[in-house]
């Protein structure tokens, strides 16, 4: 199952024909250089090329009005003067005689991608298109956009394939108001957008882009806006928005298809966004979406105006779609105060619509409201000494090369057990499968993972504690931080070091324990692992933020003996999400007697998207409340757990 690349040079054949400082950044080179970056890095040849086509009138009319379509259709025959005049009808957009043709190809490219993914020709893919689409409305062009590629693709997927729920993730730095307007009363489409807002001072300066636009009528709750009120947002701000807003809702929504409005003007160096997130972050944003909808993900290019940053970001996204391990999310800071204010406000605005937020404080305290800052306040950009005049001054480190190991998944299993699909059998002693040889095999395996010869692995062991101790000892000799995720069991037997060389998160149903130290975190799930919503809440809102901040070099996932086991789809989600850490160096320990988990574990480790969990209903209040309480206690140490600005709690410790 491959990754589609939908691209055609024809979409580079239009440009701005007159002077307009607002529009000059939208240039043909955006596409040529992104495509060139994919060719140079060798990623393009690994993708399945899918040709573009022109969208039909009927398809364009899924979103746009007849009058608007007819008007745009006349532009190829206009004089330069007429084109300029026509352009004046709209905001921040330009027309060229070839714009209409390219706009039909951009829509057609998105539709071809949807076809590829929904027929199963490919698992996922990206469409590199111009013009972008997310600003265009039923009867209006806007912000370089003519037809709304993603909105049309969404309707098309629903109509042609009977897809029920579509999640649109708009990580472009502008608000896709066109997408919001197209679906704001439609509960079958969940639209999430973050965007530079600056209390309505940033283009398109709409009141509708704020966090309190939550959808209308039947679509109440299905429109989620995260307004960024300051420039300079970083990786941790974006991840916090994913962990604490998008992902809990997305899992609850359970989409059948994910479409990304993949604008890369949200990355560092972009003259429009002026944000500080690095291109690598798109590897993680992509990864975090790849276990939704059974992996059916279509990315459609929107903005992105710094050609270097754009090329790197496109490559980070495509390489992740292809299944290569993401780079380590090094040095994550606390989300900024301003980002936390926004996240707090969004969660509060949606608390009645999504069970994950039901314990969020009701209304943002007035001093935390993002409306607090008066609009006439001094411009942030000049205050920060940011990139007002020279965008070229912004630099960032070259992204690290991602070199996937030659072997993806090793399996340490008894001789008589058959090797799961896609795995390489890895036993030190083939003849004698005893405890000792298992230990030796495990340490040898960890050594090979460290040397980048094998990416990840699973092992069937007779005693999980002993195996765990052996792995931890060996890993610490290699000076690797180890994240231990233990599911089930009563208490971790082996004595874990508490110096930060390992971090243990222990999900269990049986015992209620207090965290012993910053590096031992027991998570009590009263209702057990059968409770899908409690499990996802704990994984998304607690485990992942801590794990990303800890940034392990190795992840050890162990299933301890327990009567209560997670469903295999929960387990696969957990494995899939953990693969975003430690460059996918994940070692899974399964206990003899749990052979049924070998297949699903292997499938996830080899990169198969986890099956959907189904629409996640509300968990019993007590679990959510307990998890929220734990999250609040731990956020002193683990700042990526924060969902709001802290007044005094921080200083308590
Ligand atoms: C697709 C996109 C931006 C328009 C900016 C107008 N449009 N100032 O990024
Ligand atoms: Zn944009």
What does this entry look like structurally?
By secondary structure, this protein is of the alpha/beta class. It is 34% helix and 14% strand. It contains 19 helices and 16 strands. Strand 15 (554-559), helix 17 and strand 16 (586-591) form a beta-alpha-beta unit. Helix 9 (235-253) runs antiparallel to helix 16 (532-550), helix 10 runs parallel beside helix 11 and helix 16 (532-550) packs parallel to helix 19. The structure holds N-(4-aminobutyl)acetamide and zinc ion. Residues 22, 92, 132, 135, 143-145, 172, 174, 203, 263, 265, 272, 302-303 line the site of N-(4-aminobutyl)acetamide.
Strand content: 5-15%
Summarize model confidence as the mean pLDDT: 92
CATH superfamily of the largest domain, called what?
Histone deacetylase domain
How far is the N terminus from the C terminus? 50 Å
Q: What is the CATH C level class of the largest domain, in words? A: Alpha Beta
Principal-axis shape: globular
Please give the radius of gyration in angstroms. 25 Å
| Biggest β-sheet description | 8 strands, parallel
The helicity comes to: 25-40%
Order of strands in the sheet with the most strands? 2-1-3-8-7-4-5-6
